[in-house]
Design brief:
It contains three helices and four strands, in the order βαββααβ. It is α+β, with helices and mostly antiparallel strands. The longest helix has 16 residues.
């Protein structure tokens, strides 16, 4: 069963700075050992006057929870996660979960 580490970025205070650094972060993410793929999403409001509940969502997909746990202890995520917190100046959440398929 696939395991994902999901990063949810709230709307950043400085969109230009966020977007300027976003590709660098995705390059760091791509180098994570055991990573099967990276899925990225840009959020949009559900209605004309409704706020966007999150700005971007990134999913790091692994074969299983052990592969995700092993990856978190390597150098690449050690470089990635501090930059996630810095880039997510509007707020960021990181969750670990298994697919329910």
């Amino acid at each position: 069963m696939a395991t994902k580490i999901t990063v949810i970025y709230d709307t950043p205070r400085d969109l230009d700075a966020f977007e300027a650094s976003y590709n660098e972060q995705m390059a760091l993410a791509a180098g994570t050992p055991g990573l099967q793929r990276v899925e990225t999403y840009r959020m949009w409001p559900t209605g004309q006057d409704s706020p966007v509940l999150a700005y971007r969502l990134v999913e790091l997909v692994f074969d299983d929870s052990q592969a995700a746990r092993d990856a978190v202890g390597t150098q690449e995520p050690g470089d990635l996660f501090p930059s996630v917190l810095e880039l997510g100046a509007g707020g960021v959440r990181i969750v670990y979960h298994d697919e329910d398929s």
